[in-house]
Amino acid sequence: MTASLESDPAGPFSTGELPDRHAKRPGGEPPIPQYTGWQILAVWAAAALPMAALAWVGAPWLAGVFSGPSAWPRALLLSLTAGLIWQFVLVVLTINHEQHTLRRSVIKNALWLQAPRSPRTGLRDRRLWWLLVPLVLAVAAKEALPKIPAPANRDQGLFLQSTAGQQFFSGNWSWFAVIVTMMIFNTVLGEELLFRGLLLPRMRRAFGRWDWVANGVLFGLYHLHVPWTIPANLLDTLFIALPVSRCRSALIGICVHSIQTVVFTVMLLVLVLR
Known about the structure:
Blueprint: H1 20-23, H2 37-65, H3 71-99, H4 104-110, H5 132-143, H6 156-161, H7 163-169, H8 173-187, H9 191-199, H10 204-207, H11 211-222, H12 230-234, H13 236-247, H14 250-272
Helix pairs in contact: 2-3, 2-11, 3-8, 3-9, 5-14, 8-14, 9-14, 11-13, 13-14
């Protein structure tokens, strides 16, 4: 996939010009290549479609290979973990193709793995880390909103609350490690790295000042593997995509998204230690 370095306001899906804060970086950092609308959709499909296939085709097949009452949860966990690991591989392959190197300094710039920058000056501003407080509270409040119920056999929370789930995880360190791996690739090395680190910085040419809206919508629709969560995930447009775009820091999204992972991991650890 070849990305354009131009900031062409007439590109596909474009809604405006590329502001200077995105075109020129302080400290002599190179500009980030911009994708066309079709390139953005191609990356989205490369992440969303394998996850959907693994969840709706791969997991049922794998459950037939396993045996016992925990066959289905194990199959679903392994399938989703594989899909999230693929997203990390996709990011690495794309950045290596684009930048022709995987040097740490290049990756930090190319994936916005940097401290938040002031939208006004473009300079790093440590005070912007305080944005995490209201953002985390907003995400927590989102969890309290009414949700579309998940199918019983695909509700991980319901499985953990069940007697079968608690018996399965009690002392089960190997599967605890599998879930922790899935969570790490979900919030740090997978979804956030792909959507806020890879895609969002490259969407300005196609969507102009509304790149964060398009990114949030794509992130919500990506959840074809758990479609009942799409409405709730669309709210991340405001809670994650907007501040990441304004501050040019994917670390904000990673931190906010990871709070849920930390809470879930602690809850699961309690079950394992029983």
